[in-house]
Amino acid sequence: MHTCINGKEIVEECRDYREELCTEQSKVINDKEYTKANCRLNRWYDCALQNDKSPCLDSDVRDCFWLEERLLNRETRCVPYVPPGFKFWEGNGQEICSFASEDPTSDLSREFPRLWGHSSLQFCQRMGDCGNYRNIADEITEFGYFNPLGEPDPWSYLESGYINNGTIF
Q1: CA atoms of 135 and 159, how far apart (whole Å)
Q2: Which of 50, 80, 101, 117 is spaced 20 to 30 Å from 60 by Cα?
Q3: Where are the beta strands (DSSP E) in 8-128?
Q4: In 28-63, which positions are buried (b, 16+ CB within 10 angstroms) versus exposed (e)?
Q5: Whole-angstrom Cα distance, residue 81 to residue 42?
Q6: Of 91, 117, 2, 93, whose CA–CA distance to 44 is shortest?
Q7: b/e for 83-113, b at 16 or more Cβ within 10 A?
Q8: How far is residue 61's CA from residue 166's CA, in Å, rounded to a whole number?
Q9: What phi-psi label fits residue 168: left (phi over 0), alpha (psi between -120 and 50 degrees) or beta?
Q10: Cα 43 to Cα 63: distance, rounded to the nearest angstrom
Q11: For residue range 129-141, what is the model confidence (pLDDT) as tens digits?
């Protein structure tokens, strides 16, 4: 977060592992708009528990978006807008990543194995530092996702790290 105080730029880091987001607030004083940056908590914790679009998108209490699964006529899902980061090398985040696990023996997986695999990978990626993904060094990690139905195609990895706009393709 960059702030200007008395003509001097001050840089303040928000918390690590995407625990906080840098946000902007604006305020009008005497018909002039002023903006201010703040670090605030990333409210991703209960996104996946929301079963309806309206509570999912309630920006007063959570930072989520509604993921439409158009390809496989799956249930739509509520996922974090900015997925959390974890110290995965210390075993953190396993509960969240496990929540994103799906059954590879479902009817959809048997009927559409490649599409099911790509969709499952992308859901896993949207839950946090889970699954295979393209990291900040532009390398694809390959130890967090397993699909017995086949390997994902290269296009299925997020192209710009962990931020995405919620579209599947």
Answers
A1: 9
A2: 101
A3: 8-11, 20-29, 32-41, 64-67, 77-80
A4: eeeeeeeeeeeeeebbbeebbebeeeeebeeeeebb
A5: 9
A6: 93
A7: bbbbebeeebbeebbeebebebeeebbeebe
A8: 19
A9: alpha
A10: 5
A11: 887 777 667 777 7
Please tell me whether residue 53 adopts helix, strand or coil conformation.
Answer: helix
85: left (phi over 0), alpha (psi -120 to 50) or beta: beta
pLDDT in tens, 56-110: 999 999 999 988 765 555 566 889 999 998 887 787 888 888 877 877 787 777 8
- pLDDT, residue 62, reads 96
**Sequence-separated (6 or more) residues with CB below 8 Å from residue 168:** 67, 69, 70, 71, 119, 122
Secondary structure of residue 66 in the 3-state scheme: strand
Give the span between the Cα atoms of 87 and 92, in whole angstroms: 5
Using CA atoms, how far residue 66 sits from 40, 44, 63, 82, 127, in Å, is: 21, 13, 11, 13, 13
Average pLDDT (28-34) is 91
- With a CB cutoff of 8 Å and minimum separation 6, the contacts of 92 are 86
